[in-house]
Amino acid sequence: MSEPIRNKKLDMTAPTPQNTPANNAPISSHAQQPGVASIKEEDLDRVGAASIFAQNPKLVSMIQGKLGSLVGKSSGYIEALPAPVRRRVAGLKGVQKEHTKLEGEFQEEVLQLEKKYFAKFSPLYEKRAKIINGIAEPTDEEVKAGESEDEEDDDDGEAGAKSSAPNDSAANENVSGIPEFWLSAMKNQISLAELITDRDEVALKSLTDIRMEYLERPGFRLIFEFAPNEFFTNKVITKTYFYQEESGYGGDFIYDHAEGDKIDWLPNQDLTVKIESKKQRNKNTKQTRVVKKTVPTDSFFNFFNPPSAPKDDDDDDADATSDIEERLELDYQLGEDIKEKLIPRAVDWFTGEALRYEELDDELEEGDFEDEDDDEEDDLSDDRDEDDESEDEDDASKPKQETAECKQS
Fold it and tell me: pLDDT tens, 52-71?
């Protein structure tokens, strides 16, 4: 499914007929450049300006709100057009509505097609879960098909190294299923690996299956099944992603919110918190005591406690709102990665083969990087230009002396 369009306030927009003034500002034919020789950006007190905004977050929020309120407002350009032209523009809007309607129908049919083939995938997922958990063994045909694929991948010469591997011992014959299958697959998936801590790994070893299902309304549910473990009593933990009922501008479904199950942690086994100890001394008796405090900590299981979308009255704290929006976007992307990548090709993530096809450009876009040396090079260039100018001035002020020195040589 294509990436949903998110509703975000834009700070600025490019000039369009909707926000371009109807009348151009008057320009005098006798206009001249300012008398100042040159004004460089480096001469501005950017640090002071940044300090002012940092100390006045409400001012920043107010400016952003004002700019956001101007987006989409008519500047009078359309209203100033001749009546026949305005009529044609209205007609184009009618045509666009028909296009939007078809886009919505297209997305709905794509969703139904996904559900149709998901029903065909489900028996394969069930067979996979049985093999992973030692309930069933693959058929000879399935093993042969998998080995032939490995041989094609090993055409570069690794097949010989593979044949020299030690034979299976008698002890290995008693291994049931594929131990730690899902933990290994998740650790190979870049976005998920960043969330898994050393403490999480012990609990995730008991993960027996990851499944998904579509909702009757637009959305999907991720289902994590666990064997009995020392951390929580849940056998199943789910997380549900909901889309808005109305489609977006391009007909795509718009992400609305997510809900996760409550984890029933066993005593002192909550992986999402840690205990901090702090010594306190009594001012009168000079006796000391140790105070223990529970504080949140990083954990994969925070995934089941997604952030809530900011409310309209939270606009006063722009930084907090921006942080929540980033967390919401990351949370949605994680759900999409599990749904679209991990579940369909779990064995490729377990073996690591999926990493060869993973396009890192999607994770690290070129626009996320900037050349740090550009500013330094510009500064050095300016310094060299200033030095050259000063040398030229010195040369101009001492022409005779330099001539004399040349004659002496």
Answer: 766 776 676 667 666 666 66
User: And the tokens for 218?
Assistant: 């637009």
| Residue 190: closest CA among 342, 326, 351, 306 | 342
Three-state secondary structure call for residue 275? strand
Share of the chain above pLDDT 70, in %: 63
Q: Where are the alpha helices (DSSP H) in 41-136?
A: 46-55, 57-70, 83-132
At 373, which helix (H) or strand (E)? helix 373-397
Kindly report whether the global pTM for this prediction surpasses the value 0.85: no
Give the separation between CA 101 and CA 251, rounded to whole angstroms. Answer: 8
Half-sphere exposure of 45 (CA within 13 A, CB side): 5
Question: How many helical (H) and strand (E) elements, i.e. helices and strands, does the chain have?
Answer: 13, 6
- 396 Cβ partners below 8 Å, 6+ apart? none
User: What's the CA gap between 370 and 240, in Å, rounded?
Assistant: 37
The model's confidence at residue 276, banded by pLDDT at 50, 70 and 90, is confident
Computed over every residue of the chain, the mean pLDDT equals: 77
CA distance 360 to 378: 31
Q: What is the DSSP string of 116-151?
A: HHHHHHHHHHHHHHHHHTTS----HHHHHHHHHHHH
| In the predicted structure, residue 378 carries a pLDDT above the cut 60 | no
208 burial level (CB within 10 Å; 0-12, 13-18, 19+): middle
pLDDT given for residue 170 in this prediction: 55
Of residues 6, 8, 7, 5, the one with CA closest to residue 64: 8
Matching residue, tokens 């999607």: 362
Distance of alpha carbon 7 from alpha carbon 354, whole angstroms: 32
For residue 362, give the nearest of 339, 337, 345, 342 by alpha carbon. 337
Q: How would residue 250 be classed by pLDDT, with cut points 50, 70 and 90?
A: low
Distance CA 404, CA 355 (A): 73
